[in-house]
Amino acid sequence: PYNLVKLALEASNKVLDQIPQGEHRATVRAWLQDFTATWLGKGNYKVYDSNALKDQMKDEALNRVKENKII
To answer: Which pLDDT belongs to residue 4?
Structure first.
């Protein structure tokens, strides 16, 4: 998810940076995953632990995101 979060936030920043200062800009909130989807079957899911969540949060900070939702 780290790369997915990173790419999504970079893309949204690219669009938002084109909006002049002072105009209304959307608030970007990343939805971070903190559960392991074991029901997908062995080999089809990533095991999520505190490090996986920290990686996603680190990327938020690098991409100027101040709000998130953890699911």
So the answer is: 78
